[in-house]
């Protein structure tokens, strides 16, 4: 399979990890829930984990690659107060100011 399109995701948070199994067909995410999130990768897409916190979705169909990357991101979208969650590598999260104490 000639991989033409890539989408890199960065996982930010203490204890948040990802791992790919069975030749990039399954993606397991530890995101602070009581269970591991298991995602089945569509046929036209492959998944690689370079580090426990960097996931690469790749394939020949741009729409399917981006659709799957969005599905992974929706498991834990970036949080605006602490910046934790799953975000695209090139994404910039504007952090909000916390509440002020007297």
What does this structure look like?
By secondary structure, this protein is mostly beta strands. The protein has one domain (about 5-90): Alpha-Beta Complex (Outer Surface Protein A, domain 3). Helices cover about 10% and strands about 40% of the residues. It has one helix at about 60-75, and strands spanning about 5-10, 15-20, 25-30, 35-40, 45-50, 55-60, 85-90. A four-stranded antiparallel β-sheet has the order 5-6-1-7. It has a three-stranded antiparallel β-sheet with strand order 2-3-4, with no helix packed on it. The chain is globular and about 60 Å long. The mean pLDDT is about 90.
Instruction: Using the coordinates above, name the CATH class.
Output: Alpha Beta
Shape: globular
| Helix fraction by DSSP (H/I, runs of at least 4) | 10-25%
Tally of helical runs: 1
Output the structural class: mainly beta
CATH superfamily: Ribosomal protein L6
GO biological process, one term: translation
InterPro entries: Ribosomal_uL6-like, Ribosomal_uL6-like_a/b-dom_sf, Ribosomal_uL6_a/b-dom, Ribosomal_uL6_bac-type, Ribosomal_uL6_CS
GO molecular function: rRNA binding; structural constituent of ribosome
Domain Large ribosomal subunit protein uL6 alpha-beta: 14-88
What does the secondary structure layout of this molecule look like, with pairings?
Layout: E1 5-12, E2 17-21, E3 26-30, E4 37-40, E5 45-51, E6 54-59, H1 62-73, E7 85-88
Antiparallel strand pairs: 1-6, 1-7, 2-3, 3-4, 5-6
């Amino acid at each position: 399979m000639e991989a033409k399109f890539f989408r890199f995701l960065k996982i930010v948070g203490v204890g948040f990890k990802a791992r790919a199994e069975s030749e990039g067909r399954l993606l397991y995410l530890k995101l602070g829930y009581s269970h591991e999130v298991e995602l089945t990768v569509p046929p036209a897409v492959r998944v690689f984990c370079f580090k426990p916190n960097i996931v690469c979705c790749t394939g020949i169909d741009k729409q399917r690659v981006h659709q799957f990357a969005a599905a992974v991101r929706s498991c834990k979208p970036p949080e605006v107060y602490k910046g934790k969650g799953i975000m695209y590598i090139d994404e910039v999260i504007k952090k909000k100011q916390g509440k002020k104490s007297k």
